[in-house]
Amino acid sequence: MSNTGEQWSPSNYVTHASFVPALTSRVVSLLAPTRADNILDLGAGDGILSIAIASQAASVHCTDGSRPMVEYAASRVAEGNIANVTTEVIDASTQVKEQVPVGKYNKVFSNAAYHWIFGSLPSNEARAKAIQDVYDILPQGGQFVVECGGHGNIGEILVALVSVVKSAWAKKGVDKTYADIKAKLWPWYFATNDEIEEWLKAAGFKIELLEREYRPTTLNNGELGMKGWFDTFGFTFLEGLTEEEKHASIAEAVELLRGADWLEHGGKWVVGYVRCRFKAIKE
Ligand code: BEZ
Q: Is the Transferase keyword given for this protein (predicted)?
């Protein structure tokens, strides 16, 4: 479990992760925004997808637990003079009930964030509670539409990260166990579909769709893509190391991953993403 809020870098996100809002046709088609919809977007990151969805909705409230990301999203909304997008810092793991008025939004949406939200919580009980909070603020008939990393997501990256973190600390004479890394440096929880189903049903949702997809994902920026991915998303694993040690660890992880994810003939990195998607209704 790791609290990441202020460490997010909007410029890294825009440079190295533009595929995140781009690969969303399936989850946006499940959301099926209409001019009657007031949508709450949880974990909206740079806000690009919120802004795109707003062109088909009455309004979108673009929220994220990271203040720098929300400030960046707000600046894009202001630059684009977009009247129907509002922004707010909301940590969806614990603040939904206290910050979101009941019944204000008929749809709650989230893309590529719930693995961070679940990862910041200490137990499955707390994860079920975060889902319950969404149920409680929706009106009758309200929809909860989500895509996030599912069980098995980025397996090869996790192996590489654990390996380089252990070896960096070993060089400093510290035996960092897998349990230490998992407890303190690991920001994600990739839930199984069984877990998601249990939490949604326990909250009272009717599940209209729950699916899992292996979706190999091409990173931005050719050869530099994997390093960019680590700089953008993998920073918590390197906490406590010097800048030099961080650079060396990322370089080592990139080399470890070459066999699994580097496409020599395409000149690009393709990572083993597994998506979990669901659409649930408050009946
Ligand atoms: C994902 O969207 O699956 C993901 C993104 C960044 C870090 C880990 C997972």
A: yes
